[in-house]
Design goal:
It is a multi-pass membrane protein. GO terms for molecular function: aspartic-type endopeptidase activity. It catalyses: Release of signal peptides from bacterial membrane prolipoproteins. Hydrolyzes -Xaa-Yaa-Zaa-|-(S,diacylglyceryl)Cys-, in which Xaa is hydrophobic (preferably Leu), and Yaa (Ala or Ser) and Zaa (Gly or Ala) have small, neutral side chains. The chain has five helices and four strands, in the order ααββααββα. Helix 2 packs across helix 4, helix 3 packs antiparallel against helix 4 and helix 4 runs antiparallel to helix 5. A four-stranded antiparallel sheet has the order 1-2-3-4. Helix content is 59%, strand content 13%. It is α+β, with helices and mostly antiparallel strands and 182 residues long. It has one domain. The chain is globular, with a radius of gyration of 20 Å.
């Protein structure tokens, strides 16, 4: 291998995120803990599925709901096999993210934050699927009785926010990194 080729390879290896990945694993873990604590709290407080408490009239309630499907209750009424499908997908995505966080460039902080949020949220919902056979949701955004957004949880917010950060990185920052622009 020529000296020039070695010089080109070395910066790539040293710019990987391997040593900082533990920080992003910790961020994911914090999301996971907050998600699980809030689910336990709201399930004990609201007791039965469908129970609801007004928080900000007419736009926000705490409403206990069990999601047997994926986002927006996709495949919720399919007899139970979907629990294993979504749990397996969540585990595979989480494993991929854990490996990928070690390989992304150190300066890809927004991407790393986004992946950490997705990681914590995905594992939070996988835990629910394994423990309860459904995901516990409790945040109900609506407008009076005219419009209702599907009930969601902290893990869902982390996944959506994390994917938003991943998309910001992909659309605005990835090419700058590839071209050496900071």
């Amino acid at each position: 291998m020529s000296e020039n080729t070695q010089n080109n390879i070395q910066p790539l290896a040293s710019s990987a995120n391997a040593n900082k990945a533990i920080l992003y694993y910790f961020i994911g873990f914090v999301v996971l803990v907050i998600d699980q604590m809030t689910k336990i709290f709201f399930e004990k407080w609201l007791v039965n599925e469908g129970n609801s408490i007004n928080v900000i009239e007419p736009i926000l309630n705490w409403t206990l709901a069990y999601n047997h499907g994926a986002a927006f209750s996709f495949l919720a009424n399919q007899g139970g096999w979907q629990k294993w499908l979504f749990a397996t997908l969540g585990l595979l995505v989480s494993a991929f993210i854990m490996v990928y966080l070690r390989k992304i460039p150190k300066n890809a902080k927004i991407l790393a934050w986004g992946l950490a949020l997705v990681l914590g949220g995905a594992i939070g919902n996988v835990i629910d699927r394994f423990l309860y056979g459904h995901v516990i949701d409790f945040i109900h955004v609506h407008y009076a009785n005219m419009w209702h957004y599907p009930v969601f949880n902290v893990a869902d917010m982390a996944i959506m926010g994390g994917m938003g950060l991943v998309m910001v990185d992909m659309l605005f920052l990835e090419n700058k990194r590839k071209n050496g622009v900071s």
